[in-house]
């Protein structure tokens, strides 16, 4: 049994805590830490069977019985906490992104290499049953040689303006999942990005220096072309669809719904809307990614999403950001070269 400590018990920290308690084999949460820990959070921890609650995360790092740490704090804390945890001899699961700053991600890569510990990045969609089935179809050769990858990702409502201002922008916050999914589904690397965006949801998002609607086209090193469309608000719910088209056919996935009931009557044919947002849609994927992380520790096997997988989508996101600002295609090599990669 692997003892786990969770740093950060906001929304995502609690998702992981509950997932471990209910679904994850070979792990238990021994302690949680959060500088803003309050009585309500302490009661939540007790309900999950977590006896130890701290405001100082260092108590988790100092606990020799804790082998693995889940970093669920704010993004600006991911790099320093990752490095400190690795140096303390802990295996680390870090929520995405590792950082918005490539130089800081490079520091984490160095720390991972020096530590010899497992380090997994939280791109949970890789563990979703739909996306995994799509990838399996592609890998098994059922669609032939890849030609077009298409991903639609639209949120039901935008985040707060306070969040928008510190998010790193749509490409490093929202689309980063889709950049990772292009790599996951194709098994290939992105070589060039062209992005165009606009503000169609809320003018205040534009005033905050971001966009809320975007289309991104990418060239891949396997010859395929990928297209992503994003929007911060879809009135019908959380829209998560994908297709891979190839010389031998196509495979696509649609949205999960509460049921597959379809009502047909004189007024028309009606089905249920997609699940409302990411917690409903991807709850089991969150459990599956932590289970995979724990099993990598138990069996001493590579993690499925390593620190290099955490770096690649950030480079793509920076290329997309530059492309949208300068109205031109941007090669990933251009971004990599700027950081000595």
Measured distance between first and last alpha carbons: 39 Å
Return the domain count.
Answer: 2
Overall average pLDDT: 96
CATH architecture classification name of the largest domain: 2-Layer Sandwich
Q: Mind telling me the CATH class of the largest domain? A: Alpha Beta
Please count the beta strands (DSSP E, at least 2 residues each). Answer: 15
- How would you classify the helix and strand content by structural class? alpha/beta
The CATH superfamily name of the largest domain is: Dihydrodipicolinate Reductase, domain 2
Largest beta-sheet details:
7 strands, mixed
Basic shape = globular
Topology order in helix (H) and strand (E) letters = EHEHEHEHEHEHEHHHEHEEEEEEHHEH
Approximate strand percentage = 15-25%
Describe the structure.
- This protein has 341 residues and is an alpha/beta fold.
- It has two domains: 2-117, NAD(P)-binding Rossmann-like Domain (Rossmann fold); 126-277 and 312-338, Dihydrodipicolinate Reductase, domain 2 (2-Layer Sandwich), CATH 3.30.360.10.
- Helices cover 40% and strands 25% of the residues.
- It is built from 13 helices and 15 strands.
- It has helices at 11-22, 39-47, 58-61, 78-87, 102-115, 129-139, 161-166, 170-173, 175-186, 203-207, 278-299, 307-326, 332-338, and strands at 2-7, 27-33, 52-54, 68-71, 91-95, 119-122, 146-154, 190-198, 213-220, 225-231, 239-246, 249-253, 262-265, 268-271, 330-331.
- Strands 12-11-7-10-9-8-15 form a seven-stranded mixed β-sheet.
- β13 (262-265) and β14 form a beta hairpin.
- α9 (175-186) packs across α12.
- The longest helix has 22 residues, at 278-299.
- It is globular.
- The two termini are 39 Å apart.
- The mean pLDDT is 96.
